[in-house]
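Dear Dr. H.,

I hope your travels went smoothly. While you were away I took the liberty of generating a structure for the chain from your last submission, since the lab meeting agenda had it listed for discussion. I wanted you to have the full record in hand beforehand rather than looking at slides cold. The sequence, exactly as received, is reproduced here:
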Amino acid sequence: METIAKERYKTITSDFSSETGDSIIDYYTEAGPDYEYWSKNFNMHFGFADQTWDCLSREKMLQRMNERILGTLALKKGNKVLDMGCGIGATVRFGSKHYPSVKFIGFTITPWQIKKADAIIKAAKLTDVEVKYGDYNKLPIKSGSIDAVYGLESICHAEETSKKGPLKEAYRILKKGGRFTMIDGFIKKPEKELSTLTYKMYRTVCENWALPSFPNINDVSSELKELGFKAVSIREISWKIAPSAVHAPFVSLFFLVKKLIKGEKLKRQNWNNLKACFTIFFLGLCRKSIGYYEITAKKD
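The corresponding predicted structure, in token form, is as follows:
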């Protein structure tokens, strides 16, 4: 079994071609383990402060975000749900625990994440959940076979500010009546209209988190409607995200100090993650240009 597993990862690493590029795989392979400092459950996203005292617990806010995005999908017994860019599968694992008889499938292009997710799922004895290898621009999924699709801070890695690739794929694989949700950070205006300082911070975050660009809220909305999605709803939730974003620079500083004390050398992607975590806090203050949104839509 161990030999088969090694061959599997050797094959997908050498043969798989991703339209999103090797920079993402490199980033998450090197910096991925750092996220355990952010979340014991490897939630690789910001949190949602739903209750007054949620801000005191980062893990609680992260779990609230999982609740939030899955709650938009109106899940029912027997549904099949797909996570576009699942990381180590924190949200699909959460879903497996809280939605009995719903099948959760997560896709990622980083082999290390699959191996780690498999180990956690096995240790937790979870059922109806799986993390697979695949590019969300061209998923090995039959058209019209999925009840719900979502992207939580992952579709931002796609090309163009409209993120057309994964949005088109989401529409293809959804059944009629299927629901789609995207939660992410967005720019509110074209990149060329950002102020000099905002643009500099914005590009720093993009370059260090392996993002070609943030999605543009207007471009994504237009793309969804052009693809045929109906009931497109857009809600800004920036203030609900802000409390967890405040944690980012402090967690990053703690991580850096701990590494230095241990005498461990940081790799390039570790430094990139640290720079992005510090910068995103200040970028989030540019409210006229940057916002955090929840977009929901339905395939008729």
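Two observations you may find useful: The first strand starts at residue 80 and ends at 84. DSSP finds eleven helices and seven strands in the chain.

With kind regards,
E. W.
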